[in-house]
Amino acid sequence: MTDGWTPSAHELERRALRRSQRIRSTLIATAVTVVVFGAIVAAILASPGWPSVHALFFSGHHARASFHAILEGFWINVKLFLICEPCILVLGLAVALARSSRSPWLTPLRLAAVGYTDVVRGIPTILLVVLFAFGFPALRLQGVPNSLLFWAGVALVVSYGAYVAEVFRAGIDSIHPSQLNSASALGLSRGQAMRFVVVPQAVRRVVPPLLNDFVSLQKDTALVSSVGLFDALFSARDYGNYNFNYTPLVVVAGFFIVCTVPLARLCDWLQRRWMERERAGAL
Amino acid sequence: MSALLEVSDLRKAYGEKVVLADIDLTVDRHDVICLIGSSGSGKSTLLRCLNLLEQIDDGVIRFDGAEISDPRVDPRSVRRRIGMVFQAFNLFPHLTVLDNCVLAPVRVHGVPRSEAVARATELLSRFGLADQIAKHPDRLSGGQQQRVALVRALCTEPELLLLDEITAALDPELVGDVLTIVRDLAEAGTTMVLATHEMSFAREVATSVCFLDGGRILEHGPPGELLVAPEQERTRQFLRRVLPPSG
């Protein structure tokens, strides 16, 4: 649809003005950022203890020497995370749905769900890991693995499942009842309404808090070091205890950051895409 | 005295799609301008451009003599003086009716809370909402909600009121309540620009009617002329579809 329009002189002037306003805000943003971060870095470098901190925490030699062991240990963290996360999502959603079920037949399930979230969220995750990793193998159950790693993973799933269930429930509750009504009006059953209408909307809304829990879980995979599994943290501590240097801990922190930041970017991108698709025009 | 609002050569496009072109519009004080036209003709977009919710792509908008389409103008300074009511009410669900109405006077205009409450209460009672003051918007009927939205816009004593199809989401029985208020406002001399599908209402209150088609003002004039004997064939077509056969 072209109508032979060319911008008027006034409009061109306005565009130039907008452009210079944009440039000005970019310059301000850059200047403020450089000044603030520059001041912080300068304050740290100028502090009296910096040389010894530098040798103890940021030694290039120790970073290189410990790198390989940490990398191997980190593989355990990654495996744990990748396997636990889907399990947590499924468990969390199932518990949330159980809590918001209305059928009288499902009352025991509903009560169990309430009890589970209440109790598990009250127990420190590290305690669950220790209890599960040392307790369950002692039962010598048949047909399930008895390794420390397996039960530490189960503990993480159980612990995070409770948090994620609450996040899902908040998302489900935040969907306006009119959505459920209009789904019912179309003849969908309550289960179908949940499955096709409410939950898809709820999931989108809770992506940011879910990401919060993902990142938290990535870090908490390091809790398995408390039962002596050679994950990244345990390997770093092991190295540090032999060599009296904390650099490996900083290296571990670097490993975790490298994993969590791209995940955060991915989620932001997903969110924006959904928003653009569903709210054309209106912001 | 110059016109309150003056629009010249306004153009708005979303990418390649031109939604408004060559719009010229003058609103004097105490005018009631009705924008009519089929859905997608650009009525809502025009209203949104007028209080700077949309950035325009060409042309000039002047409010009270000063150009407000200048990027240096703070949109908030303009919106303080212009009220707007939306088709979907857009009340804040977490605030009571009263708090919806006093939010802007207190936070934006610095009116003391007691004064804002007194004014809001007075307006709400005048529009038959005295019983609803302490309730939350979702507990009200659509007609009541839209009346609250009108009061909310009026509480800041705007010099210009923009109404975007405010009865389109209401059932016919409730339309009357809302239109009565708008009619009273028109009689009291409130300057308004409103997009509407209510032709008989437009005929009654408008000082001028604009027919929009494909993002252009195809025709404008006093309601007695435009709605009765339009010059353009396109306008006639539109009116035939929306007016009851008896006329």
Q: Can you give keywords for this protein?
A:
heterodimer; A: 283 residues; mainly alpha; MetI-like fold; 11 helices; flat; B: 247 residues; alpha/beta; six-stranded mixed sheet; 10 strands; 36% helix; 24% strand; globular
Which percent bin holds the helix content of chain B? 25-40%
The count of strands of chain B amounts to 10
Number of strands of chain A: 0
Strand order across the largest sheet of chain B: 6-7-8-3-9-10
- Residues in β-strands, percent of chain A: under 5%
Uncertain stretches of chain B: none
Report the average pLDDT across residues of chain B. 90
CATH class category name of chain A: Mainly Alpha
SS content category of chain A: mainly alpha
Number of helices of chain A: 11
By secondary-structure content and strand pairing, the structural class of chain B works out as alpha/beta
Walkthrough of the structure:
- The complex is a heterodimer of chains A (283) and B (247).
- Chain A has 283 residues and is mainly α.
- Helix content of chain A is 80%, strand content 0%.
- Chain A has helices at 9-46, 50-57, 60-99, 107-122, 125-139, 148-174, 177-185, 190-205, 207-220, 232-243, 247-278.
- The two termini of chain A are 24 Å apart.
- In chain A, 26% of the residues are buried.
- The model of chain A has no long low-confidence stretch (mean pLDDT 88).
- By secondary structure, chain B is an alpha/beta fold.
- The termini of chain B are far apart.
- The interface between A and B is medium-sized, with 12 and 15 residues.
Give the SSE layout.
The complex is a heterodimer of chains A (283) and B (247).
Chain A: H1 9-46, H2 50-57, H3 60-99, H4 107-122, H5 125-139, H6 148-174, H7 177-185, H8 190-205, H9 207-220, H10 232-243, H11 247-278
Helix pairs in contact in A: 3-4, 3-6, 3-9, 3-10, 3-11, 4-6, 5-6, 6-8, 6-9, 7-8, 9-11, 10-11
Chain B: E1 5-14, E2 17-27, E3 32-36, H1 43-50, E4 58-63, E5 66-67, H2 75-79, E6 82-85, H3 97-107, H4 113-126, H5 142-154, E7 160-164, H6 172-187, E8 192-195, H7 199-205, E9 208-213, E10 216-221, H8 223-226, H9 233-242
